[in-house]
Amino acid sequence: PGEMVTLVARGLCAGYGAADVLHDVDLTVKRGEMVALLGANGAGKSTFLNTLSGLVAPGSGRIVLNNTNIEGIAPHRIVEAGLILVPEGRQVFPDLTVEQNIELGAYRRKSRPAASELEALLTRFPRLRDRLKSPAGLLSGGEQQMMAIARGLMAQPQVLALDEPSLGLAPAMVEELYTILAELRDEGVTILLVDQMATLALAVADRGYVLEQGRIVAEGKADALKQNDALIKAYLGGS
Ligand code: ATP
């Protein structure tokens, strides 16, 4: 059963200087699962992802990826270990082409990506196909998000962590994007999805966790969480 678990955070505490943000956070992502991490503005969701990624140093606790401890190691080594973060705001290189942006995802890989990998990504994200040679800065917000996810997939992630991919996108685009995320999960990509829009995320995720002021206050199967009106009202602003 150990090998079914891809990512485990145990008793994770982290913050910025004297400001403690995360308190004793436990969270598990199993292989092939999509897990949603929910919570209001400022609950600590980005801090959690940034701690997983090595951008924020944990004060205490453990982070285990595929049976290897990764807490406190350098961000590039965490990328090499297979934990890939698609950050909030997507970090697009606007003057590079879409193709170049996507290829950057492979820069820590030992093997050069095969042409068939790009082809598979373009089948997954057909909107990007016609834009491959265009500067990424000309894409719409939703297309840029898709490109950022394609870049993350190019890294061959053990776990793909997404920080608020729906932020600022039109509802139709969010629906399209989340349908693609569900397809990726169905194909075996392990996903940790951070979102403020609880009902949206719980519609596609397998399980969810609710973060409130840096503590996990609820967890469970997505179906159960999304039917818990009191929980959604109390912690998630009814969204
Ligand atoms: P949001 O959706 O607004 O990003 P979040 O749940 O991701 O919310 P965080 O961004 O992790 O929350 O923020 C958690 C707390 O940490 C907030 O009180 C925030 O002000 C604080 N914080 C975030 N980044 C820093 C930083 N670089 N230095 C100091 N405090 C920070």
UniProtKB/TrEMBL annotation:
Location relative to the cell: Cell membrane
Domain ABC transporter, first and last residues per copy: 7-238
Family to which this protein belongs: Belongs to the ABC transporter superfamily.
Name this protein carries in UniProt: ATP-binding cassette domain-containing protein
Organism of origin: Meridianimarinicoccus aquatilis
Whole-protein coverage range: 590 to 828 of 836
